[in-house]
Specification:
Helices cover about 30% and strands about 30% of the residues. It has about 270 residues and is an alpha/beta fold. The strands form three sheets. It has a six-stranded mixed sheet. The protein is globular and about 50 Å long.
Length: about 270
């Protein structure tokens, strides 16, 4: 099954949600005019990461999500990206949502691994469930940013049949080499497509400092080949067509998951 996919690499304007939504809609319109079936956005692409703003903006989270649903239906396009959402206890989660082309939620994933270096664990509530969903192009999994450093999570997705992993991120300098290496590693070792969408440009956190996101959004095939890649400065819409049938071909050729020995894959089982 082939899929026309786009990555929307853009600069998120901190605390300017309506401006970010307008920019996102422009990307959706452009993608729709090119018959793109799925468009993917970066992590927290509507609000950014200003903790004070997020805490004061809680009442608007649901309206942002509803707006994305309306956009998906308007442009007849699948949409993914991570947004702030309140959980059942009223705490903020970093939630990756996949909308189908009718505006319905196809999958919801709340970021499990919170980046303590940036104090996410002090401001956000962690999720506890992975998200695998059937789509017209095949099984798709969701993850967010720091999750990339936890290979067992991606292996679990692959074992459960995921062919495309969508990975929105806000990954800054100086960790460019980490980003480039880990995204390729996750694609190769799990024999899957990885769509990794990063922010680009500066984000000012006020008294908490600032960062510069380096873009380099990528779609990587199961062999580790980069099919499209953004640069480190520019907002851009990256588009390509992928054939997810090659995932089965590769997994049937190099039978990693058949050859894997789960009895000893947990290192604790090997310690006397």
């Amino acid at each position: 099954m082939k899929l026309k996919i786009a990555l929307a690499q853009f600069k998120v304007i901190n605390s300017k949600s309506l401006e970010n939504l307008q920019k996102a809609e422009k990307f959706m319109s452009d993608a729709s005019s090119q018959n793109i079936e799925l468009i993917c956005f970066p992590e927290m692409f509507i609000t950014g990461f200003n903790w004070d703003f997020l805490n004061s903006d809680k009442n608007n989270f649901e309206s942002y999500i509803n707006t994305l649903s309306c956009y998906a239906k308007k442009y007849k396009i699948w949409i993914n990206g991570s947004v702030p959402e309140l959980n059942e206890e009223g705490k903020i989660c970093n939630t990756s949502i996949l909308f189908d082309s009718n505006g319905e939620r196809a999958a919801t994933y709340r970021k499990i691994h919170l980046f303590s270096y940036m104090k996410e664990n002090e401001h956000l509530a962690a999720g506890n469930k992975l998200a695998v969903t059937n789509t017209p192009w095949g099984k798709t999994g969701l993850s967010v940013c720091y999750d990339l450093r936890f290979p067992g999570m991606f292996q679990t997705y692959a074992i459960n049949g995921v062919k495309l992993q969508i990975h929105p991120a806000a990954w800054p300098y100086p960790r460019l080499e980490h980003w480039q290496t880990l995204t390729k590693a996750r694609a190769i070792e799990n024999q899957m497509f990885v769509a990794a969408i990063n922010q680009v440009g500066d984000e000012d956190f006020g008294s908490n400092g600032s960062v510069t996101y380096f873009g380099n959004s990528m779609i990587i095939d199961p062999w580790g080949k980069v099919l499209v890649q953004g640069n480190d400065k520019d907002e851009t819409l990256l588009t390509t067509e992928i054939d997810l049938d090659i995932v089965d071909e590769i997994r049937n050729t190099i039978t990693v998951f058949e050859d894997r020995n789960p009895a000893v894959c947990d290192i604790t089982n090997m310690i006397n």
